[in-house]
Every structure is written in C-alpha cells, then in structure tokens.
Amino acid sequence: MKVLAADGYILCRGLVRTLTLLRDDVCIVAADSIDDMLARISEQPDLDLVLLDERMPGMGSFAGLRRIVERCPDVPVVVTSPNESQAHIV
How far is CA 59 from CA 4, 22, 33, 54, in A? Predict the structure, then answer.
C-alpha cells in the first residue's frame, strides 16, 4: 500500500502509524506542501491513499485539495484538521 502523507501534523502521523501497524506492506511518501505533493504524485503513479493536512502550505481554501483530486481522481483523500467545528467540516 502506497500512501502520500502531509508531513508535520500529529493526527496524520498517528494515521500513518496505525496503517503501518495494520499492514506490513505500507510505503509512506512524505510531502510538506501542495506543490511537493503534486510532484510526488507524478513520481508515485500507483498511490493507494493521500493524507492531506487542511492547513498545509498551498491549500488556499481547499484549492490545493481540488488540485490533488484532479491529479489522482481514483485515489481516496483523507483531509485532517485540528478544527472540530461542524460548520467548518461541512
């Protein structure tokens, strides 16, 4: 399982750790901005999951998420956020 993960976010790191505990074949590729993630997507065409920090540089009111989804529309994307407001989540 290949996972592209936003770097530097505690929840994301927890998710990555959980994945590595559940599966032996997890390969984590880290990125620290939307542009870095897009570059890594080009290098990893067979991704299984993208973990994305809502506050990652380049997100720009979720424009970065749109760019990620456009680049790999068949890959599930999990967006992590420290914000628990239901209005924000929706």
Answer: 16, 29, 8, 7
